[in-house]
Structures are given as structure tokens and as C-alpha cells.
Design a protein that fits this description.
Blueprint: H1 2-28, E1 44-45, E2 55-59, E3 63-68, E4 83-88, E5 97-98, E6 101-102, E7 112-119, E8 126-132, E9 139-146, E10 151-158, E11 166-173, E12 176-181, H2 188-198, E13 203-208, E14 213-220, E15 223-228, E16 234-239, E17 244-250, E18 256-263, E19 267-273, E20 280-285, H3 288-293, E21 302-308, E22 316-323, E23 331-337, E24 340-345, E25 351-354
Parallel strand pairs: 6-10
Antiparallel strand pairs: 1-25, 2-3, 3-4, 4-5, 7-8, 8-9, 9-10, 11-12, 12-13, 13-14, 15-16, 16-17, 17-18, 19-20, 20-21, 21-22, 23-24, 24-25
């Protein structure tokens, strides 16, 4: 009887601890938050993007790369391989086109995630870096943009043991970048079930170059989007589950020093930076719990947040767009060009709205 009593107490304590942890996890995922619509004029879904538009980055004179077809644990996805699309924001039809990829590259297992563009200042050559998860692995692909053919040529694959759960990258050169690891574990089961229940700040930021690879910032609950200020002096990292954006100062040895964090009140995914103003544009999930539930009757909403004057003592955080998921579900990125706002999503579509 004494043994049964101890077992009963142990089971009771387990369920109490588990219940308390689930309450904490739900709070981190903003599970009780209901999005309020904040629409913009003249919004239209882009054509050809039916399997997500997880990351979008504008470069040059109104061109944008779009990654689509991400397969990520516990999220809806298509069986089709991932693709990269090109969008010309100056054309009236605004129709993304799939980009052919040449070189020694496995198209069938292509699973693109975060992307970043680097333009060589000496000759204007455009390079596209893509986080790739073939068979749920982790590596970074380097492509050259062949503008005359509107295609990509695969040049190189970067792999390293420290790049074990890569989400996003920001390129600094043809062989240098910062990358976020969104989880501590690389195993799909551990990262999708065990780690969320632990709810500990275990993810990090890695600096990669041909000379060295090292962890340069840690202590994130879920390090996601990453980008750089126009003057290249600061790095911005979105910690999704902490509901903030970290501002980090770059050092001469490429280490990162914490400056401050800015609360955003949402689960913000990727970060795009306006090269003219330095403003940050964030695609966010107003309720992360709904993202993983995949209930079309109660779909995950979308939110776009802008941060102005982030380096000042009083940054201005503004909700620019919000939807309850009936227009666009699970927004992951937002970027602007020519008075237009582009909103991408993890597994849904992409939306273009007028800002003015």
C-alpha cells in the first residue's frame, strides 16, 4: 500500500508539472490571442504560389526571390519539391515565375527555407543563399543569378556540425554568413515534440566562413529570422517564442554583442530591412498554436509589423496589417518596394497590397 501511495503521488506530481509546462508553452505560443483584422487597400494573392512563400527578399531594381515548398515538422506541406520563384515588382501583372536551376544539384530533394542575397560590389554579380533541408537535413546552398536567362546556377553547398537546425541566414560575402539554429536538437522527433515541452532558450546564431565557424550568440527560445542593418554594423535576430527582436553589434572578429531586445507582441518569423530607411519589416504569427493545429475552420492568422528607429532609445513598433487567416494564413515574411507590401507565408500563398 505504501508503494502504491508513492506511485500515486509521483503520477500526480508529474501531471501537475506537465500541466504547468503546457500552460507556459501555450503562453509562449500566444494560444489565446485572437487576431483583429487590419486590412490594406488593393490586396491580391500572387499567382503560381500555392505551396507557401516562406521567405521573400527584394534585390536590384524591383526583383524579388521567393522560396516555396518548405517541408517542416508538424506543418502542412506538398509532396512536390521546393522551388525558387522570381518576381518583377515593376511589371503590372506581378506574376512570379519558377526559376530553372542548373549545375550538380538534386532538385528532387530541394527543401528551401530562409534565403539571402549578396551582390558582389566589384562586378554586380548577384548570389542567392538558400537554407536547404533535403531529407530534413541541414545545409546552405549557394547559387549565382544568371540574369540573361532568369535562372540560377548552383555553385556550392555549405555544411558544418554547428549548422544543425538552420532556419535563416544573412549573407556577408560569397563564403561568409550568419545563420540561426532554431532548435538545439537536429532529430525531427526531439525538435518537434521534446524541445517545445522543455521550453528552454537553447537555440543560437552561428557565424560561418571558410576560415572559421563558431557560435556567436545564444540563449534564444527559437532563433528564426536574421538580417543586417544597411551599414552592416548591427545584426537583427527574431526570437519567435520570446516575442522580441534582438539587436546585436558586430565586432571586428564577427562576434556579436547584445545591445537590446525590442518587444513585438507577436511570434515574428523572418526579418527584411528597408535599405533606404533601415526600418524592419516582419512577417508574424499572431497565434502560433493555430499554425500547428492546421484547422481550416479556425485557420492561423497573419500579421505584419514594422519597427522604425530600432537603434534609438524609443523604437516605434507598428502593426501594419493583420488578418484572421481567411485571406492569408501563417505569414512568415514581409517586405516592401515601390509603395507595395509583399506578404509571404509558411505553407499558404503570397499577398501583395498597396501601402498608400
Amino acid at each position: 500500500m505504501e508503494t502504491l501511495g508513492l506511485v500515486s503521488v509521483a503520477v500526480t506530481l508529474f501531471y501537475m508539472l506537465f500541466g504547468a509546462r503546457m500552460v507556459q508553452v501555450r503562453e509562449m505560443y500566444l494560444a489565446s490571442r485572437q487576431p483583429v483584422k487590419n486590412q490594406l487597400p488593393n490586396c491580391a494573392l500572387l499567382k503560381n504560389l500555392n505551396n507557401g512563400s516562406e521567405d521573400i527578399t527584394v534585390f536590384g531594381d524591383g526583383l524579388a526571390f521567393i522560396s516555396t515548398g518548405l517541408k517542416y515538422p508538424r506543418l502542412p506541406s506538398s509532396d512536390d519539391p521546393g522551388k525558387i520563384f522570381l518576381l518583377n515588382l515593376k511589371e503590372p501583372d506581378m506574376e512570379p515565375v519558377e526559376m530553372p536551376i542548373s549545375g550538380n544539384f538534386d532538385l528532387e530533394t530541394f527543401n528551401p527555407h530562409g534565403i539571402s542575397v549578396y551582390t558582389e560590389p566589384t562586378n554586380g554579380t548577384v548570389y542567392l543563399f538558400v537554407v536547404n533541408h533535403p531529407h530534413y537535413g541541414n545545409q546552405v546552398e549557394l547559387f549565382e543569378f544568371v540574369e540573361r536567362e532568369l535562372s540560377l546556377s548552383h555553385l556550392k553547398t555549405f555544411k558544418h556540425k554547428l549548422l544543425h537546425s538552420v532556419n535563416d541566414i544573412v549573407a556577408l560575402g560569397v563564403d561568409r554568413f550568419y545563420a540561426t539554429n532554431d532548435h538545439y536538437f537536429s532529430d525531427v522527433l526531439l525538435k518537434s515534440i521534446v524541445e517545445p515541452l522543455l521550453a528552454q532558450p537553447l537555440s543560437n546564431v552561428v557565424y560561418y566562413s571558410t576560415e572559421m565557424v563558431k557560435v556567436v550568440s545564444n540563449g534564444y527560445y527559437f532563433a528564426n529570422g536574421i538580417n543586417v542593418s544597411p551599414d552592416k554594423r548591427h545584426i537583427y535576430v527574431a526570437d519567435v517564442l520570446a516575442h522580441n527582436v534582438h539587436v546585436l553589434e558586430r565586432k571586428e572578429d564577427n562576434a556579436l554583442a547584445f545591445v537590446k531586445s525590442v518587444a513585438v507582441g507577436s511570434l515574428c518569423d523572418n526579418i527584411e530591412v528597408d535599405p533606404k530607411t533601415g526600418n524592419l519589416w516582419l512577417g508574424c504569427h499572431p497565434n502560433g498554436w493555430k499554425v500547428f493545429n492546421n484547422d481550416l475552420k479556425d485557420p492561423p492568422g497573419s500579421e505584419v509589423i514594422r519597427i522604425q528607429n530600432i537603434l534609438s532609445e524609443e523604437p516605434v513598433v507598428t502593426q501594419v496589417y493583420a488578418d484572421d487567416g481567411h485571406v492569408i494564413m501563417g505569414s512568415s515574411v514581409a517586405t516592401i518596394y515601390g509603395g507595395k507590401l509583399l506578404i509571404g507565408s509558411v505553407f499558404h500563398k503570397a499577398l501583395c497590397c498597396d501601402l498608400d
